[in-house]
Sequence to fold (313 residues):
Amino acid sequence: MSIHSYTFCPLGIHLEHCLVGPVVSALCVYSKDISISSSRFIERSAWRSFNVSKLEAFGNDISGRQNRRRVAFAASEGSTSGLDYGFSRKRKVVEHICLLKANRDLSAEEENDMLDYLYTSQYQMGGIVAISLGSLSDKNPDGYTHAVYMRFQRQEDLAKFYKNSFYLRVLKDHVIPHCHGLISVDYESEVQDDILHIFRKGEEFNYGVEFVLLVSVVETARGGPADDALATLAKLPMEFPSLIVQATQGSNFNTSDIEYTHGAVIRFRSIEAFKMFVGSSDYKDIWKSKFQPITQKSLAVHFSVDPVGTEIM
Fold:
């Protein structure tokens, strides 16, 4: 199983400038304002890159699931994709992140089987309103190889999910035999109160890059400083609409695993948008000024997203 060689540290900072903790092998593990000066050059360049990449479509499927249909469309340059982040109503959602450490001898067939069963879990039980998953695009210090992201409407739905017999059987028969470690982070956040954004449906969410950030902040920073740092992430879709579709962030509420205190998931429009943003001075400044002073350790990973609604097990 191949993993790409270059590595992005949390918020685009090189590894030696970040506080990265040791490997975590746990079973299961909430924002003040900052102005981010987005460059018009970045915005226009991003849209040009976005248009080209979508017209070509993503020819490579990182997760190895080759039989999935690709979707192609182009967005108009200068568009903000019709999203109104400043004045729209908000709806609370619950985010679940699970990172897996697959065995080195995992075959392509076993990988597809594992990911397909995890993905189709949404059709076998209630509560899951959105899901994405895939093979991580880069190596990371903790050795995680795959990520699973799920969204629920309420914490009660997530609690039922953990105890669901079908899900437990998927873990027992199709995940645990192929993995030697996993970690989960759960948090509550807010999104726009409309069907497309709650359920992550439509052209905006058909494909792109899912960026996952996990951090553990020092005890004295929990509350004000941590909330302030998270608020910078919450504003990113409004500040960089041509790069980012949606961002959620929050404090880990799963008391069974407190290794990481906070988590965030950011959906980028394309791999080009992702690379452009994490390499920008704005993003690096966020990490240096808001996160680095209060962070004990961190983990940042990302994976490509396939078109939704086409998976067949």
